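Protocol step 4 of 6: structure prediction from sequence.
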Amino acid sequence: MADQSITINDLEKIHAYLYEIPKSYRSDMRASARVFANQEMLRDIIQDRSLWQLVNVTTLPGVIGYALAMPDIHQGYGFPIGGVAAMDLDGGVISPGGIGYDINCGMRLLKTPLQVKDVHDRIGDFATALYRSIPSGVGAGGKLELKGQALDDVLGGGAQHMLKLGYGMPEDIEFCEERGRLEHADPSLVSERAKTRGADQLGTLGSGNHFLEVQRVEEIFDATIAQAFGLFQDQIVIMIHCGSRGLGHQTCTDYVRTMVPLLTRWNIELPDRELACAPFYSDEGQAYFKAMAAAANFAWANRHLIGHRVRQAVQAIFGDVAVTTLYDVSHNIGKIETHRVGGHEKQVLVHRKGATRAFGPQHPAICSAYRAVGQPVLIPGTMGTASYVLAGGQEAMNVSFGSACHGAGRKMSRAAATKLVKGAQLRKELQAQGITIRCRSDKELSEEAPAAYKDVDSVVNIVNTVGIARKVVKLRPIAVIKG
């Protein structure tokens, strides 16, 4: 295996927040690798294999421009988390590791007209209602179990099908990336094992870094965009972070296993088998693309149903209160998009793994309500730290294939975090900060402790300064629900 150690000296500084590993660094690179970061972040980044993984991405057939990493980059499977790569449709590949095991892990942010003063005395009751309404934890199942054609209808129809079943409101679909459905999904290409794993998991959070948070708008950076998004000072919002659960994980596993034995037939040599891929227009490449879309639809349906349950919980505790969707964004997905390449508009396959679409103002893919200001970009922090709402900037279309970061990004493994942080003590510290916690597992709290993550303020400031996405508001948690 090639040397996996990359040092700061191997990076060339393009500007204050952009560094490049040139194509000349390794003979098998087809493009340069670029990372958005500052010097302090780089010292953390080089501690794991994430930059080595980013260099590996540049070896894939058909890679266009640069393999890119956002400031929340950390080691993943094949691709680093926080990685973005665009592939030529004709000569390029599609890689499950470039999309991730939790297909369409993403964020949904719900707005209420409530203010902090309206919920202060009942936040404990509200947190408990959410915890009871939305199952969380490893393998947790929900109240809705679908099999056969009923599950296939969800895989084909996504959030839009959940609306037909009576969950949510039409406006939820309008404010959802791709309107909550990828049309090319083919449920028949999702294995029975994957379907079995997902059958009872709609409307559930899962475990790990997935969460549901009740938050307040703490600070407004751009009043005009905040108004366009319907956000105001001290407003209560609810942030949902989850994905496709066991169904998405199994789908990724299935297609990695399919592709690895065929690499020799396709004359594809890889520095790391975790980069297993297939030519995009091969039978296997198209099968994964359509199965991935079905798993993505499942994830949108999952967040949509959770949103419906949140709306019910709000109204059960606070009465007839309007709960609306600000936006729903994807983190782990591969999509055909049109970008400017070499001075010309070109369709490419964009892999985003732990990265958020951040289309700038006037892009036709943005819903009409936000088109003038740019797509909402939802960036979660960690328990006890801030989260952010940003708006996609025009510079993202120039330098990052319309992509921004997706969170703070880990700087410490879960195992290391549990050794450093005691969950019971963290629970007390968070509660002392006025944050209500609903989580049975102290170990889960330890694994997701703020100390295990980068400083979200610094991560967000980089994408804001570069112009990839503009800061709109800062959110602060007042209640956290985890598996």
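Step 5 (inspection) to follow. DSSP finds 15 helices and 19 strands in the chain.
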